[in-house]
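User: For my dataset I need records formatted as: sequence, then structure tokens, nothing else. Please produce one.
Assistant:
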Amino acid sequence: MSTTGRPLSPHIQIYKPQITSVLSILHRVTGGFLCLGAVVFAWWVITLSLGPEPFAVVRSALGSWIGRLLLFAWTFSFFFHLCNGIRHLFWDAGIGFELRTAHASGKAVVAASIAMTIAAFGLAYAM
């Protein structure tokens, strides 16, 4: 490598994480995690058609503490991806680019995602 004294591009360690960048990364992570959840959902649906024994295996796996934790994480991922996707639709329409509005909508996305996840699990366990 030659050392010409050119300025280097700033690295991720130099930038301070901002809510917009963190939520963008989280949007991508939750999208990937939802793909894994779709595979688990397909496994669950397939075992429904295979009979009670295979379905019992999936039910016990998803009923374990790790299974419930994954279901909670998938539920949060779903609601976060949904809310952040709606936020992006507004951005596509040119609405919400002001810094104050972007921060407020980011906080609203996180709050709504948490509230909907808790509500969904509250309803599921109330039944």
